[in-house]
Amino acid sequence: MKTVAAEALHRRLGGTDEIALLDVREQGVHLQGHPFFASSAPLSRLEAMIPALVPRRATPIVLFDDGCAHALAETGAARLAAWGYSDVAILAGGLAAWRDAGFEAFSGINVPSKAFGEFVEHHYQTPRIPAAELKALRDSGTKMVILDSRPFEEYRRMSIPGGIDAPGAELAFRVHDQAPDPDTLVVVNCAGRTRSIIGAQSLINAGIPNKVVALKDGTMGWELAGFQCDHGARHRAPPPSPEGAAAARAAAARVAKRFRVKFATRAQAQTWLRDPARTTYFFDVRSPEEYSAGHIAGTRHAPGGQLVQSTDEYCAVKNARIVLADPEHVRAVMTASWLVQLGWRDVFVLTPEGHDGFSGWPVARGKPQGAAAYGAVAGGLPAWRTIAPEDWYRRMRGQSDFAAIDFATSLHYRERHVPYAWWAVRARLAEAKTFVFNPRALLLTSEDGVLARLAAPEAAALWPNAEIAVLAGGNAAWFAAGLPIEKGLDRATTANDDVWYKPYDHPADALKQHMQNYLDWEVALVEQIKRDPTIKFEAFD
């Protein structure tokens, strides 16, 4: 098994060659500490994540874990080799060796994007408004519009009263109709800080005549100030009028010139996508509705705001090439301007061709998936016996010699799950043996059934005498069938550190403390990045 020392890895991360640094521990462990440029790729879900995170199989990849026996990293390296990845190494000594060498370890997730948001606020002096001041202005009747820069589902969960959803790069595209009067104050918010800052600075960079401010600390700051958020709001900024779209395109042209945004033709992009020596990510940065209606086949949906907010979840290969598709240009240009400042040198906006912008490309349709959902599975899915939800429910009611294991995230499991199912982490499945003895029938399930199928051969090795079946369609099919459910984490077989628990995911009595801790962490990042010479954000004056 090839290894790389911490010092050598640090040098490579500061260079210009492609490299993917993957943390194969669970995401909830990853957030406790990792190198700045590491992407979370848990061993439990590696087959489903790796095709999109590292699409070129000759890419140099370094895996790491805690460093204790290298069990996770070695298993991950063996799997990658079996799937055709040809240049895989393990960080010798894991994270412990990285720390011992004196290099920075960052807590949290989406660290590059979060740190960049703090850098932007400090460098550009992005204007901000505290919650109490915003509340006073609203109560006094000040003419304003509050634009929420998060995806619609996040906005619906909690929002500033009167806020309108206009996610990320859509801000510069849709703002002209939302605030046509230059005297209207434009307030941009998210849940915390990053998308508020980037969103507000985007509108300032676009040169809109309105005064623009970021809501300090977003909805968390609003609630910490003692104010109530709305829940279930449905106010969305509509697509721009012809006049609004024209103003947005003119603004994007100014941004492209200032931030030296590069453009690529269809022929160039197609050549890059065939290049075996270089990784090219190809993203469609438009709204989910536009992507569903028609997109270039092979593009991955990455709404501009989310791509900037969580770059590590989309682009694990440092120094790769990125191509952005958007026939209107506006969202792609705004996104590219931020990726350039994030340190991505080769970012290109695809030049649209034809009446729909996609002339010469195969076009596909279909609902987009989120950053954590991937279509392809490395190595393919193993063939395994499945059982319909209704059939398992009848069997479950008719006998007692059975068990079920759910590989959904602990958050999803806590919300609802199949009755009597134990919750487990796939990479720690052996721990479940303590709780699940020797059932005659063992059901495996997960969110959509994919992870359960991947885990089935491993479960068969641990329970050789059990009749093992996978729930057809996974938990989604069970819920859709309207069958009984349970809630809570009472039947957990391991620590629930598989995913990040956002402040809002914690109990009500601890909610405010978690909010404050999160905001303090974000603010502190701007000082921590100064201690890591591999971090090279680019600022434009």
Structure description:
With 541 residues, the protein is of the alpha/beta class. Helix content is 38%, strand content 15%. The chain has 22 helices and 23 strands. The strands form 5 sheets. Strands 1, 2, 3, 4, 5 and 15 form a 6-stranded mixed sheet that branches. Strands 6-10-9-7-8 form a 5-stranded parallel sheet. Strands 11-17-16-12-14 form a 5-stranded parallel sheet. Helix 8 links the parallel strand 7 (144-148) and strand 8 (164-165). Helix 6 (111-124) packs across helix 10 and helix 6 packs across helix 22 (511-528). The protein is globular, with a radius of gyration of 24 Å. It starts with a strand and ends in a 13-residue tail after the last helix.
Distance between the termini: 47 Å
Structural class: alpha/beta
Number of strands: 23
Helix percent band = 25-40%
The number of distinct helices, counting runs of at least 4 residues, comes to 22
Task: Return the average pLDDT rounded to an integer.
Answer: 96
Q: Rg, please?
A: 24 Å
Tell me about the largest β-sheet: 6 strands, mixed
| Assembly classification | single chain
Question: So what's the overall shape?
Answer: globular
Proportion of residues in extended strands: 5-15%
Q: Which runs of at least 5 residues are low in confidence (pLDDT < 50)? A: none
Short description, anyone?
This protein has 541 residues and is α/β, with parallel strands linked by helices.
Task: Spell out the key features of this protein.
541 residues; alpha/beta; 6-stranded mixed β-sheet; 5-stranded parallel β-sheet; 22 helices; 23 strands; 38% helix; 15% strand
